[in-house]
Design goal:
This protein is α/β, with parallel strands linked by helices. The chain has a domain of 109 residues: Hypothetical Protein Tm841, Chain: A,domain 3 (2-Layer Sandwich), CATH 3.30.1180. 32% of the residues lie in helices and 17% in strands. Helix 6 links the parallel strand 8 and strand 9.
Length: 319
């Protein structure tokens, strides 16, 4: 943060108000809500994002892959018209409630001494630690998780319910006495968003089996029925709530400078300019030739070094 000047926090933006969850702690920054960007005049949205970028320096827009196509097109159009690399569009493969949770985690981290490139990269890292799923009354229109013919047939049986995890690994079970879903191997909180289906199985069976440390409820995001293919659902998301753990996870990963825009990043892609590290010839493994000792990627993804990742992540999650 140098020279005693306060750093202006990077703005974390979402595409609807129901994705702006209440603060997790006193340091959680408010979300910038880009409401109805596909319905408002283009010049209004341009002015809004320009003002946000001018005020905060950089903007990270976190949005669902289920967002209407017009919203995604408008965001890309605005970014192109502004001719700036200071606006990042981040669309991780998470259901809407998981998107809201990830955006809040980034809002927590935005209060820390992290540069915009590292903060945006943190979104990719923290996505791995989010367990997102739903209790569904039908899987006949579910196309986000593999559904076999038996599950499709059981969807027509009155009263059938299905427990589904979409991330980090797809799981699907028919709810019954022996039904179980594999959960996180570390302490989490569980956020539950009730739709047109009772949440009893989630709160009474799933939460204890996942040994969650806290359970909270929130309204169901408007995009959730489209994402899950039915309005008869209760969505849930297990996540790391503590800022200290999130910060330790992010800062334990090696940082490098993006060769294109110069921002410090973690991982192998800059979220702002989408550049990946250039490849260099290893020259027969001579570590004295080429950048980064023999031409390895300058920005190593934390999962490329399993031993390093496991040691540091274990310390962060249990320390």
């Amino acid at each position: 943060m140098g020279d005693g000047e306060p750093r202006v926090p990077t703005a974390i933006a979402v595409t609807s108000a129901d994705l702006a969850l209440p603060p997790q702690d006193e340091r959680t920054l408010p979300a910038a809500v880009l409401q109805d960007v596909d319905r408002r005049p283009l010049d209004q949205v341009l002015a809004e994002l320009q003002a946000l970028a001018d005020q905060c320096g950089h903007v990270i827009v976190v949005c669902s892959q289920a967002v209407p196509a017009g919203v995604a097109r408008r965001l890309h159009t605005v970014r192109a018209l502004l001719e700036t690399d200071r606006i990042a569009l981040f669309r991780p493969p998470l259901p809407p409630l998981g998107i809201a949770v990830l955006a809040r985690q980034l809002r927590q981290l935005a209060s820390c001494d992290l540069g915009p490139g590292v903060l945006a990269s943190a979104g990719r890292l923290l996505t791995h630690y989010i367990h997102a799923g739903a209790l569904l009354g039908s899987v006949t229109r579910l196309d986000r998780v593999p559904v076999d013919l038996k599950a499709h047939a059981r969807s027509w049986v009155p009263g059938s319910q299905f427990g589904v995890v979409a991330h980090p690994e797809p799981q699907l079970v028919r709810v019954g006495p022996e039904a179980a879903l594999t959960g996180p191997e570390f302490g989490t909180s569980l956020l539950v968003a009730k739709g047109q289906l009772p949440s009893d199985w989630v709160t009474g069976t799933l939460a204890p089996s996942w040994r969650v440390q806290a359970l909270r409820e929130t309204p169901l995001p408007a995009e959730s029925p489209d994402w899950w293919g039915t309005g008869r659902l209760t969505e849930f998301c297990a996540y790391l709530p503590d800022l200290s753990v999130l910060y330790q996870l992010v800062t334990s990963v090696r940082q490098s400078a993006c060769h294109w825009c110069g921002l410090d990043v973690i991982g192998d892609r800059c979220v702002f300019c989408s550049a990946t590290p250039p490849l260099y010839d290893d020259h027969g493994g001579d570590a004295s030739v080429g950048p980064a000792g023999g031409g390895r990627d300058r920005a190593l993804d934390h999962r490329r070094d399993p031993a390093l990742g496991r040691r540091r992540e274990r310390r962060a999650l249990t320390g």
